[in-house]
Write a structure and sequence with these properties.
This protein folds into 2 domains: 64 residues, Orthogonal Bundle (434 Repressor (Amino-terminal Domain)), CATH 1.10.260.40; 56 residues. The protein is built from 7 helices and no strands. The longest helix has 44 residues. The protein is elongated and about 70 Å long. Pfam families: HTH_3. Keywords: DNA-binding, Membrane, Transmembrane, Transmembrane helix. This is Helix-turn-helix transcriptional regulator.
Length: 146
Amino acid sequence: MNTQKTGSLIAAIRKEQNRTQRDLANELGVSSAAISKWERGVGFPDVSLVEPLAESLGITIAELFKGEQIEESVDREYESLLSDVVKVSADEICRKKRLANWIIAATVAALYVLISVITGRWEITWVVWVAYCFYRVITEHIFKCS
C-alpha cells in the first residue's frame, strides 16, 4: 500500500466530484486537515474510515488500498473479504480501547481508595473522579468507541 498513490487518488476523485476537502471531511466526520494529510500521503485514514471513504468517493476498498482505479471489475468476493478485514480490524481496535479504558478507570479508582485509606481522609472529590472514570467507560461503550 502506497500512501502517496492513495492520497493522489483521493485528491483526484474528490476534485473530479467538485468537492472541497471540507465537504469530504464533514461527510466522514473528520477535520479537513486529516483529508489534507491523506491527500499529501503523510498519513492514511483510520481503519474505521476506509469503507465510508471508499463509498463516498465511489470506488472500491481494493482501489483505495491500491491507490489507483482498476479498469476490470473487482471480484465481489474479494471486495467483500477486504470489507470484512476492515470491519474486524476496526472492531479489534475498539475492543482494545474499551479494555484500556476499563483498566485506567479501575486503576484510578483503586488509587483514590488507597490514598483515602492511607491518609484517613475520605473526600468527595475521589468519588467524583471515580464516577467520571466509569462515566467515560460507559459512554464509550454506548457510543461505540468514540
